[in-house]
Amino acid sequence: MHIILEIYRDRGNAQYGGEAVSQLEHALQCAALAEQAGQSAELIAACLLHDFGHLVHRLGEGVTARGIDDRHEYRAIPILEKRFPTAVTAPIRLHVAAKRYLCAIDPSYWNALSPASKRSLELQGGIFSDAAAAQFIQQPYAPEAIQLRRWDDLAKIPNLPTPDLSHFTTVLQEAAIV
């Protein structure tokens, strides 16, 4: 757990893609939304950690602007799966696919995405076909990934007060593999 917290403290001030918040602000906002909704420790942890892959790759900043999909939804899994159960790691792994799914089933969802999220979507494979959407929703943890995705989209408000990282340490410990 210590290494995860240290990485957030060391690298969390980096800008979150093309958004007006830092990586850490985005993570805290997403986790706070899940906590306010009364979700499980596992889903709150997934919300906090869903973009951890952006902090552990060595591709530099502004990868999306350079036309690179950093595949962040997979990059953190080797670190996280040693510490957390599938109930935490699966929604993280699926949250990009959830964006592709939501665009496929709800045309208004695409319109509500931020410009940076639309740009990254194209690099991530674009909107799912009907067949791919039907296949996605059948996966275990797809509903949790969709809920995470919806909070992910809302967690981009500059200067929004949230609990700090230490507040979520207990949640991470509760969600961790014992």
Can you walk me through this structure?
This protein has 178 residues and is an all-alpha fold. It is 63% helix and 0% strand. The chain is built from twelve helices and no strands. It is globular and about 40 Å long. The mean pLDDT is 90.
Task: For the structure shown, list the relevant keywords.
178 residues
Secondary structure layout plus pairing:
Blueprint: H1 2-11, H2 23-36, H3 41-49, H4 52-56, H5 72-75, H6 77-80, H7 86-105, H8 107-112, H9 115-123, H10 130-137, H11 142-154, H12 165-175
Task: Report, as a whole number of angstroms, the end-to-end distance.
Answer: 12 Å
Segments where pLDDT lies below 50 for 5+ residues?
Answer: none
The chain-level mean pLDDT equals 90
Topology as H/E string?
A: HHHHHHHHHHHH
Task: Report a brief summary of the structure.
This protein is mostly helical and 178 residues long. Helix content is 63%, strand content 0%.
